[in-house]
Specification:
7 strands; globular; 3-stranded antiparallel β-sheet; 8 helices
């Protein structure tokens, strides 16, 4: 089976952990946090604690999002329970927010370029707008263009597994959103950003070791191919990745 975006994010996270741990535990000293700071070229010793937490948050929230993409708003239970539907909707929206914040931590602590621009790009994701309207500021949503205060309420009778409708009581507008599409766009953006972080980390740590630098970049290459539009399969026995090239119709 080809990797999903959730699975790709998990693979990228695993690679990040592997690279950092191999570097850190190759040699240690008594002041562990100072050792980590020097190994990973961090600004502060305490940054490592935030990096550890961000890894865990990305993994945990990814499990929640993966479950939502599998079972939708209804969930895996046989009961048509409205309360569970709201919990799953709110939970999924918060999980995407947690991922975005964790990714911002990694982006910042490894000193990637244009941090402000990256945050602005995250804010343009549709899932962010949906979260603000339905999962965080439903009763006091401030329109970014007009500064008017809007009020949003999900239309419960139109809850579908991967589609949600909501009503704006401020101007009586009604809108339906494709949750699966919005989540997929979010996940792809998270994967792409995580690859940026890893490449910056590799460059920083192994700048003077060209062979190691090139070797580690080869491990990132399959992920970049999937992000560019190829399919990706993981051989579960060898751990190797197989890239699938798609031929467009106009080339046939």
């Amino acid at each position: 089976m080809q990797l999903s975006w959730c699975e790709l994010l998990s693979e990228v996270n695993d690679l990040f952990i592997k690279i950092t741990r191999n570097k850190i535990f190759k040699k240690e000293n008594d002041d562990f946090l100072l050792h980590v700071q020097q190994c990973l070229k961090l600004n502060k010793k305490e940054d490592w604690n935030y990096i550890l937490a961000s890894e865990d948050i990305l993994e945990d929230s990814n499990e929640a999002i993966s479950n939502f993409l599998r079972f939708g708003i209804s969930g895996p239970t046989k009961y048509n329970d409205m309360g569970e539907k709201y919990l799953r909707l709110y939970g999924m929206l918060n999980a995407t927010y947690l991922q975005q914040q964790a990714m911002c931590n990694l982006y910042k602590f490894f000193q990637c370029q244009n941090f402000t621009k990256k945050k602005e790009q995250i804010d343009t994701l549709q899932i962010v707008s949906i979260r603000h309207k339905l999962g965080a500021h439903s009763a006091n949503y401030k329109d970014p263009e007009t500064s008017e205060m809007h009020v949003f309420v999900p239309v419960r009778i139109e809850f579908n597994d991967f589609e949600c409708s909501y009503f704006n009581h401020y101007n009586d507008k009604y809108e339906t959103v494709d949750l699966k599409s919005a989540i997929q766009d979010h996940l792809k953006f998270m994967c792409n950003t995580y690859v940026e972080v890893i490449k910056k980390m590799i460059l920083t740590i192994y700048k003077s070791n060209k062979s190691k630098y090139n070797e580690l970049l080869e491990g990132v290459a399959p992920f970049e191919r999937m992000l560019s539009g190829c399919g990706l399969i993981k051989n579960q026995q060898t751990g190797e990745f197989i890239v699938i090239e798609y031929v467009s119709a106009n080339k046939i």
